[in-house]
Design brief:
The chain has a domain of 36 residues. It is mainly alpha-helical. The longest helix has 16 residues. The two termini are 54 Å apart. The chain contains three helices and no strands.
């Protein structure tokens, strides 16, 4: 079924294009060849979004920095 549909589409496109001059048809063919020969590069690797933590500090220093950056407050902040 898919092959029949594809042939039908190709035939329809050819009916439109057959009235063009040879130079234009060759340009269209060249463009189509390039689009087929260079497939789109897609990076669907979700794990590429992640990496390792890089830091020159020791684990203890990082933990100390996190604790020292904390702020204790009973004030309630407004949500935006």
């Amino acid at each position: 079924m898919t092959q029949t549909v594809n042939k039908s589409k190709a035939s329809s496109y050819f009916q439109i294009l057959k009235h063009l001059d040879n130079k234009t048809m060759k340009e269209i063919i060249d463009i189509m060849k390039v689009s087929i020969e260079t497939p789109e590069k897609k990076n669907n690797d979700f794990s590429a979004c992640f990496g390792t933590w890089e830091d020159d500090r020791s684990v203890d220093q990082i933990v100390d920095d996190i604790y020292s950056a904390r702020v204790n407050s009973s004030e309630i902040e407004e949500l935006l």
